[in-house]
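Need residues for this backbone.
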């Protein structure tokens, strides 16, 4: 029902919808919306779109830079391995070129002396370029040499790789020493050794083929292991993987070959590769997580900007609505004041001009003037009380109060008015109702507002029932009518100041929009609450619930349910 205290009709009148004030408010709201769209939303959307479009490119660049760093790390390990073997080759070249190595015994002494400091090497051989004379030196205490390290075995390997030997001779002719790995099959040994060959000139400038034999596992364990740990540090995991068997031969931490997304072949070992990954995450995972993090940051910024814009818009819209409500409030209060004043003036002038013929008619005029004066007083009191309530200055004088007596006095003010308007009035007062701690004047004010509403918003079925009672230890006063009713979606709004439902009798009934706000505040200050039962076309029932025991003065107002 449109029944909301005096505010039951707080929406715009049909004829007011094109009022200049309304049009100005609508134009201002549109202007604010356009400014928000132009200043906040469009830049935010443009920035987000630009960042998202460039995000994938940025992440690709980031990934490429990281991979370049990892490539550089792998290159340094490869270079370290190569330098270690080159140092071996340099030492052997010095021995071969020394005149003291012209004899087999001198060559063997020099090589033994070198191998004593290089416990990774299994054997060294020296051959002429025609592979006719081959000298093999095995370090003492180094264990059994590989099975192919016989003169015929070495000769077979060299002849099988004669084309590579020819290229090595050409490189040495231009004073470039190149080490070439030669494949060796040694099934009896289990793990095939590695043979590195290079060309060195002896003291007579005759080219010699020199071979260094060692196991890759020994080299990795004794030479490369320490460098792997230093290079890995606390950020990476490094491992040497056999590309044929996909087995990890050495690693700085436990790792699976499938986790090493980035691998580089070891220059010295054709079948081995160096693998690297970040601790905890791969490069791809790191790039992906960074992309998601950036997207999350962009999303949060957009949400904050949109939320800020929405709050500004909502605040502005609320201000516009408040301006409109205040404008309607002034208009409605003016109407409320003008109506009783007009009646009082009209009847007073009639009495002054002595146009009243009978004493009964004169009495009715006096009665009407008194009623309209009381109506004016209640309206002014509502305004004053609302002002004090809004400023937090209204106080209440709590005394034991007989609700039945209070209701009877309030109903007495309306007896003639209700009879003149042909209302059916039913008063149902409970017997043995205990006194309630309350401010009698304030409760009477709340009842006046409810009864005024019942009168205003009743249509053809003019019925008002006022009852008192006690339920579940709480006293109540109930005002029921059969008027136009209130839609359920408006039940929570009708107690807001200035609010009036914008339908039904709003076109013909004026109100200040303060009545139910005052009722709610008064009952809440007594520690009670207001209950509403209403539906469109089915009338309304307002029940004021008041505690039977006194409450602390600073208690929190419990509002309607």
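Answer:
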């Amino acid at each position: 029902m449109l029944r909301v205290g005096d505010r039951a009709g707080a929406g715009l009148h049909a004829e007011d919808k094109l009022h200049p004030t309304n049009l100005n408010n609508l134009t201002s709201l549109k202007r604010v919306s356009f400014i928000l769209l132009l200043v906040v939303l469009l830049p935010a959307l443009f920035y987000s779109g630009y960042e998202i479009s460039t995000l994938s490119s940025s992440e690709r660049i980031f990934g490429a830079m990281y991979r370049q760093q990892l490539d550089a790390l792998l290159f340094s390990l490869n270079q370290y391995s190569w330098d270690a073997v080159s140092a071996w080759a340099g030492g052997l070249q010095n021995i071969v070129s020394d005149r003291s190595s012209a004899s087999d015994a001198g060559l063997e002494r020099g090589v033994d002396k070198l191998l004593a400091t290089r416990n990774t090497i299994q054997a060294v051989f020296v051959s002429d370029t025609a592979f006719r004379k081959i000298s093999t030196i095995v370090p003492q205490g180094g264990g059994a040499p590989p099975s192919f390290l016989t003169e015929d075995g070495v000769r077979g390997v060299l002849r099988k790789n004669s084309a590579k030997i020819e290229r090595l001779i050409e490189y040495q002719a231009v004073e470039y020493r190149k080490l070439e790995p030669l494949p060796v099959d040694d099934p009896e040994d289990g793990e095939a050794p590695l043979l590195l060959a290079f060309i060195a000139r002896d003291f007579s400038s005759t080219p010699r083929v020199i071979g260094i034999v060692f196991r890759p596992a020994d080299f990795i364990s004794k030479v490369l292991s320490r460098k792997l740990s230093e290079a890995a540090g606390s950020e990476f995991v490094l491992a040497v993987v056999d590309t044929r068997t996909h087995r990890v031969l050495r690693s700085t931490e436990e790792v699976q070959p499938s986790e090493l997304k980035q691998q580089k072949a070891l220059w010295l070992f054709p079948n081995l590769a160096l693998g690297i990954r970040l601790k905890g995450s791969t490069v791809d995972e790191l790039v992906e997580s960074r992309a998601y993090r950036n997207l999350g940051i962009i999303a949060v910024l957009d949400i904050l900007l949109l939320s800020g814009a929405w709050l500004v818009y909502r605040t502005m819209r609320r201000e516009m609505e408040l301006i409109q409500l205040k404008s309607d409030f002034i208009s409605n209060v003016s109407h409320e004041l003008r109506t009783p004043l007009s009646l009082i003036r009209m009847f007073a002038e009639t009495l002054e001009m002595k146009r009243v013929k009978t004493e009964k008619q004169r009495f009715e005029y006096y009665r009407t003037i008194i009623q309209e004066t009381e109506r004016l007083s209640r309206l002014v009191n509502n305004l004053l009380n609302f002002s004090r309530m809004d400023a937090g200055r209204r106080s209440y004088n709590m005394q034991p109060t007989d609700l039945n007596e209070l209701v009877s006095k309030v109903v007495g003010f309306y007896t003639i008015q209700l009879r003149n308007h042909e209302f059916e009035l039913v008063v149902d007062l409970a017997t043995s109702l205990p006194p309630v701690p309350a401010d009698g004047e304030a409760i009477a004010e709340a009842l006046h507002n409810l009864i005024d509403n019942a009168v205003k918003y009743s249509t053809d079925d003019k019925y008002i029932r006022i009852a008192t009672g006690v339920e579940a230890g709480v006293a109540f006063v109930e005002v029921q009518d059969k008027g136009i009713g209130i839609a359920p979606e408006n039940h929570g709004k009708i107690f807001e100041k200035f609010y009036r439902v914008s339908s039904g009798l709003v076109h013909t009934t004026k109100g200040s929009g303060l009545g139910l706000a005052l009722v709610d505040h008064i009952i809440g200050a007594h520690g009670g609450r207001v209950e509403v039962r209403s539906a469109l076309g089915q009338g309304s029932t307002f029940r004021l619930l008041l505690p039977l025991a006194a409450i602390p003065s600073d208690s929190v107002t419990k509002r309607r349910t």
